[in-house]
Amino acid sequence: MTPLILYVPGLRPKPEADPHREALFRCLVQGIRRIDAAAADEIVTADHCFDIVSWTYDFYGKHRAIAIDAAAIDAVIAQEGATPADVAEASSWKRRLMRWLYTLGDRLPLLMPYVASERMSLHLRDLRRYVRNDDGIAEHTRQLFKMLLQAAAESHRPILVIAHSMGSVIAYDSLWQMSHNRDDGLHVDLLLTMGSPLGQSYIQKRIKGHTKTGTQRYPTNIRRWVNLSAVGDLTAIDPKLRNDFNEMVVAELIEDLQDVEVLNHFRLDGKLNVHSEYGYLVNEQTARIVTEWWRMQR
Questions:
Q1: Contact indicator for 11, 126 with CB cutoff of 8 Å
Q2: CA distance 254 to 218
Q3: Does pTM top 0.90 for this prediction?
């Protein structure tokens, strides 16, 4: 059976499903091609091996025009890695200060309105909408993910879930529900999270299973978990998840949980965006993880 790479995007409107999938796939394949051309060729020619959970239109009621990002996507694909200027900007004192302020706001929520940027405030607004499940939108979003997972499982396809930003919360919540609310034997061979907010206290107090104890607290259908966080990513303000979810490893619910730091060099209109999904997907570390998984399945 052809392995399935299933991608779950984060918050904010995304392009229509087909051009979005194509752009994401281009980034992923180009990263893989740099380290293993044969694997890249296999993935490109494999039948329906890459799919996305297109949930954001239902959440926002609109798409983002792919033309807005087209030149920047081409540029991040063409650039082989982060430049010294990219690294310096990603690790600047301003970003370190913002990380400290956001971490403080996460621990003391009353402070967050005073330290959050406009972009972060919009992120928090959308996050609260998901957490409250307004008009059933969160459950609807999770159902979209579950249907694709279930279809792959019924076909006995090995599954790699790549979840970016808020997509990692959607994937985590869905996998918890599927492992505790039904016994269908489904499992994800590898969960690859990128720029995840799962290290935040606010999120951990609201994800599925947070009121449970012991093994009931966690999903039981993930074989391995790798978490990528880019230098300077202010969504992944706590970039290390193993210390928060290590009980899964200790209880042998999961074989391993690994945190990996990466450099994201995506720029839109000249402005560095280290949280970009396109930059994460074209990254060499992402490529190595996906290529190793693909080779093991084939």
A1: yes
A2: 10
A3: yes
